[in-house]
């Protein structure tokens, strides 16, 4: 246990020496964005002011492609292609795409349920004709054996 404690102390002192050298370079490179307080780096307490790179209140606009115009029409956002403005917001385009995504999902659900119902109906029709997968496979194998026997005789 004693060696572990000594190892921690050596590592801690080495880290503090390294931190002193690194913190001075941090202060120089980041224009005093970080300052040293009790051996730790912390952000300075300054009055909140808006940085120069803040998001402006204008919404960024996007010129829709032909496909995006079709999406805007299918989603019901616009009635005619002539009504679509030259530029639209990304939010409007995302909302239209999400609406189309939901409609496609509903259509896939309906097609899946319809396919299941259709397969049940076809299975019941086959059961009335006394057809099963087993009987169909046995008939197919018998046919293949006959063809193989005929082919073997001709050779």
Automatic annotation (TrEMBL):
Q: Membrane topology per the record? A: Single-pass membrane protein
Entry-linked InterPro entries: DUF1075 (IPR009432)
Keywords, comma-separated and alphabetical? Membrane, Transmembrane, Transmembrane helix
Q: Which Pfam families match?
A: DUF1075
What is known about its subunit structure? Answer: Interacts with HSP90AB1; HSP90AB1 is essential for FAM162A mitochondrial localization and pro-apoptotic activity. Interacts with VDAC2; the interaction is probably involved in inducing mitochondrial permeability transition.
State what this protein does.
Answer: Proposed to be involved in regulation of apoptosis; the exact mechanism may differ between cell types/tissues. May be involved in hypoxia-induced cell death of transformed cells implicating cytochrome C release and caspase activation (such as CASP9) and inducing mitochondrial permeability transition. May be involved in hypoxia-induced cell death of neuronal cells probably by promoting release of AIFM1 from mitochondria to cytoplasm and its translocation to the nucleus; however, the involvement of caspases has been reported conflictingly.
Full protein name: Protein FAM162A
């Amino acid at each position: 246990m004693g060696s572990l404690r000594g190892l921690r102390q050596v590592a801690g002192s080495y880290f503090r020496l390294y931190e002193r050298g690194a913190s001075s370079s941090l202060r120089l490179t980041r224009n005093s964005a970080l300052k040293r307080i009790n051996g730790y780096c912390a952000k300075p307490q300054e009055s909140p002011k808006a940085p120069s790179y803040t998001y402006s209140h204008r919404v960024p606009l996007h010129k829709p492609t032909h496909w995006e115009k079709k999406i805007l029409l299918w989603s019901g956002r616009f009635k005619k292609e002539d009504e679509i403005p030259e530029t639209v917001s990304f939010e409007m385009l995302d909302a239209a795409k999400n609406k189309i995504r939901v409609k496609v999902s509903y259509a896939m659900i309906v097609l899946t349920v319809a396919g299941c119902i259709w397969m049940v109906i076809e299975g019941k029709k086959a059961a009335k004709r006394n057809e099963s997968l087993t009987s169909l496979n046995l008939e197919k194998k018998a046919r293949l054996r006959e063809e193989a026997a005929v082919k073997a005789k001709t050779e």
